[in-house]
UniProtKB/TrEMBL annotation:
<dbReference type="GO" id="GO:0006384">
    <property type="term" value="P:transcription initiation at RNA polymerase III promoter"/>
</dbReference>
<dbReference type="InterPro" id="IPR045803">
    <property type="entry name" value="DUF5921"/>
</dbReference>
<dbReference type="Pfam" id="PF12660">
    <property type="entry name" value="zf-TFIIIC"/>
</dbReference>
<dbReference type="GO" id="GO:0000127">
    <property type="term" value="C:transcription factor TFIIIC complex"/>
</dbReference>
<dbReference type="InterPro" id="IPR044230">
    <property type="entry name" value="GTF3C4"/>
</dbReference>
<dbReference type="GO" id="GO:0004402">
    <property type="term" value="F:histone acetyltransferase activity"/>
</dbReference>
<feature type="domain" description="Transcription factor IIIC 90kDa subunit N-terminal">
    <location>
        <begin position="6"/>
        <end position="398"/>
    </location>
</feature>
<dbReference type="Pfam" id="PF12657">
    <property type="entry name" value="TFIIIC_delta"/>
</dbReference>
<feature type="domain" description="Transcription factor IIIC putative zinc-finger">
    <location>
        <begin position="619"/>
        <end position="669"/>
    </location>
</feature>
<dbReference type="InterPro" id="IPR036322">
    <property type="entry name" value="WD40_repeat_dom_sf"/>
</dbReference>
<protein>
    <submittedName>
        <fullName>TF3C4 factor</fullName>
    </submittedName>
</protein>
<dbReference type="InterPro" id="IPR024764">
    <property type="entry name" value="TFIIIC_Znf"/>
</dbReference>
<feature type="region of interest" description="Disordered">
    <location>
        <begin position="490"/>
        <end position="542"/>
    </location>
</feature>
<dbReference type="Pfam" id="PF19336">
    <property type="entry name" value="DUF5921"/>
</dbReference>
<feature type="compositionally biased region" description="Polar residues">
    <location>
        <begin position="508"/>
        <end position="517"/>
    </location>
</feature>
<feature type="domain" description="DUF5921">
    <location>
        <begin position="399"/>
        <end position="476"/>
    </location>
</feature>
<dbReference type="InterPro" id="IPR024761">
    <property type="entry name" value="TFIIIC_delta_N"/>
</dbReference>
Length: 702
């Protein structure tokens, strides 16, 4: 938005028909002014996209900032499974703010010319044309409520770099829901000519977090700008801009990455900034000491014969990957020295893996297990291909042993956030059809010494993959629709001549096929595993594979029951802390207590003490659930479903163990469990329970 619509239309017509060719040709050929283009190809597609950190949307996942070819910046979220929704259009909001401020960044700015002046027309467009945008890390602050309680409030920043070198810093409250979650928007003047790239600089020193913005220019300079975060407690910034590279050497800055590292010689944290400049990699090591901010910089040369088209970094170990369009990828490993650091680099020839290819971009997975490469066909016999077929290829960067060791020693303790590592482990077990002995022994030691539910979930993951690898593959492709007519067996119909044996055989085949479908979708295995076993005529003499399947199935059920009991203890702990004497909650407290104590072999002193306190507080009250259809009592006999005396079946929420008596409910990403939606009547502690991930696989719930 550069002005009133009528005035903008008049100005466009005036500039297009101007007798001055410097005005008319500049206007007609610039797609920012003239997005329709008339005879030019339409502006479809995306210029750039940026993922936010985990935990920014309502489901605890990432937000996606997308910049389209027609320079529109929007934010999208994956609210429902496989469905992306646009939450806000930042270009429209920023344009409205500038329009209200008469296109002045501050009140002290002198008024500029009218819209009819071509230079003013260009200025108003350049101050709203995004070049890049990047997300910061999540900032957590404490907010005091009306009853003097403190609650943690998360926020995230989105920095948007514009053509005129200004930077808009948006602050969003988490979880981000839309326009109402926008806290503030501040504009910073960078002073960089022809800005090309942007990145956040986040540095932690002595438990104090510092932040800034690294801006690169198409002419070569790179510098860090201070970002004042007065509204975010515990965050600090630089006093003045820091120039990392000032030479105007006409080597455009293509990409910037900031990697936090630990300096083994200085015994403190440091920050490594790497930037792709032409065919070289510029690096800068930032270190805070008693003398102030120490800056060491240099270039890594001799990497590529062509300009670097993409760069990515593994932030866990500091490894940097660069690629040029000729299909060559370089791996740069930083090695610290007494003074600064040096890089060891080695060549990864994609042509040895994929043949002759051209590379257009690379990205490393969050835990460094895979390198994703966008490729097209390369030259064949000196000729370019007629058509370009873009493909995403995956190259493994870690071995199975390295992935397993990283999962065992992980500080994250969340399988969903390490899905690239678990994928390597899954592939190995599916291939070998057994769990390696060293992994089993190491995991058992972790469970015995630590007892964390993370290791129990890891064990459940391994057992489920082992069970899947031992099953017989279906004879037909499961996704392909069947053209056979469905047969209905009517036992009382005299016209049907099917025998009882035929009916049993058909039922057995149908149950086996259904169980394979459910297992492939990642659903609960214990419900369908028994039906999916090969049917044997002799019950006493089962085959060895069938006995092994039964053994693995029993182990899966035992681990699932352990995880269920641990979560039940957590739910009961929340009930005890947040309820008064004889207070009725919607959680079936008495049923959960009875279910925990129903097994004589389960002897947990913590659970017995907790249940004793809860029963004492309930004062002999039971507060059972009732069926919404017939008002009969719903007994708590199963953790997955509730069945009343009239046969009405309701699924149970795995987070609160309440019966989901509605037609709409949520499901975890791997279809492991179901959960109900929070209601306005629910207290805060129940809503907090309903925000948790799946207790079996750590996946978010949709």
């Amino acid at each position: 938005q550069v002005g009133p619509k009528k005035e903008v239309a008049e100005c466009k017509e005036k500039f297009a028909s101007s007798v001055d060719p410097t005005v008319s040709q500049t206007f007609m050929l610039d797609r920012v002014f003239n997005p329709e283009g008339k005879s030019l190809p339409p502006m479809r597609g995306f210029k750039y996209s940026s993922w936010s950190p985990l935990g920014c949307d309502a489901n605890g996942r990432c937000l996606l900032a997308a910049l389209t070819m027609d320079n529109r910046l929007t934010i999208h979220a994956n609210l429902n499974r496989l469905q992306w929704v646009q939450l806000v259009d930042l270009t429209e909001i920023y344009g409205e703010r500038l329009y209200e401020a008469s296109y002045k960044l501050s009140k002290a700015d002198t008024p500029r010319g009218e819209l009819g002046d071509f230079s003013e027309f260009q200025r108003r467009h350049s101050m709203q044309t995004p070049v890049r945008m990047e997300w910061s890390g999540i900032c957590t602050t404490q907010q005091v409520k009306h009853n003097n309680e403190c609650r943690d409030v998360g926020s995230v920043l989105l920095a948007v770099l514009f053509e005129n070198s200004n930077i808009a810093v948006w602050q969003f409250q988490l979880p981000f829901l839309g326009k109402e979650s926008i806290t503030s928007c501040n504009t910073i003047e960078s002073g960089i000519n022809s800005p090309s790239v942007l990145s956040w600089w986040e540095y932690e020193h002595n438990n104090r977090k510092m932040s800034g913005l690294i801006v690169g220019s198409a002419f070569g300079p790179v510098k860090i700008l201070p970002v004042n975060l007065k509204a975010v407690k515990g965050y600090f910034t630089l006093r003045q801009p820091v120039v990392l590279w000032q030479e105007m050497d006409q080597l455009p800055v293509h990409s910037i990455k900031c990697i936090p590292l630990y300096h083994p010689y200085q015994k403190c944290s440091c920050s490594l900034v790497v930037a792709a400049r032409g065919a070289y990699v510029f690096w800068c090591l930032l270190l805070i000491s008693k003398a102030g901010l120490n800056v060491h910089n240099s270039h890594v040369t001799g990497l590529h014969s062509l300009p670097i088209v993409s760069m990515t970094a593994d932030k866990q170990n500091g490894t940097v990957y660069t690629c040029s369009s000729d299909g060559k990828v370089r791996q740069l490993i930083p090695i610290f020295t007494d003074v600064a650091l040096k890089f060891e680099h080695q060549l990864i020839k994609l042509s040895e893996v994929f043949g002759s290819v051209r590379t257009h971009g690379i990205a490393v997975s969050p835990c460094g297990a895979y390198l994703a490469v966008i490729t097209t066909e390369g030259m064949t016999n000196g000729l370019h291909p007629v058509n370009k077929n873009y493909q995403v290829q995956f190259v493994t960067l870690k071995t199975f042993e390295e992935a397993a060791a990283q999962l065992l020693e992980s500080s994250v303790q969340n399988l969903f956030r390490q899905v690239d590592l678990t994928d390597l482990v899954r592939w190995k077990i599916l291939k070998d059809k057994h769990i390696p002995q060293f992994l089993q022994e190491a995991l058992d030691k972790k469970i015995e010494s630590c007892g964390s539910t993370y290791f129990w979930r890891f064990k459940l993951f391994l057992l489920r993959i082992l069970y899947q690898s031992m099953q017989k593959a279906p004879s037909e492709v499961m996704w392909r629709p069947s053209h056979e007519d469905a047969k209905i067996l009517i036992s009382d119909s005299p016209g049907l001549g099917s025998t009882e044996d035929d009916q049993e055989e058909g039922t057995s085949k149908q149950a086996s096929k259904q169980s394979l479908c459910d297992t492939g979708k990642g659903m609960d295995i214990d419900d369908t595993a028994e039906d999916s076993l090969p049917q044997s005529s002799d019950i006493g003499g089962r085959e060895p594979m069938e006995e092994k399947l039964l053994e693995v199935q029993a182990q899966i059920e035992a681990v699932e029951m352990h995880l269920t009991r641990e979560h039940m203890k957590r739910v009961l702990g929340e009930v005890y802390l947040h309820t008064w004497i004889t207070e009725n909650t919607s959680i079936p407290t008495r049923g959960v207590c009875d279910f925990l104590m129903s097994n004589d072999g389960y002897d947990d002193r913590t659970a017995r003490v907790l249940i004793g306190h809860i029963l004492k507080k309930m004062n002999k009250q039971t507060f059972p659930e009732h069926c919404s259809l017939c008002k009969e009592i719903l007994p708590f006999t199963d953790r997955k479903q509730a069945v009343c005396s009239n046969g009405h079946i309701w699924l149970r929420c795995f987070l609160t163990y309440q019966s989901c008596q509605s037609l709409v409910y949520r499901r975890c990403l791997l279809h492991d469990s179901i959960a109900r939606h929070p209601t306005p009547e629910d207290p805060e502690w129940i809503k907090r329970l309903l925000q948790g991930p799946c207790t079996f696989c750590d996946s978010p719930v949709f």
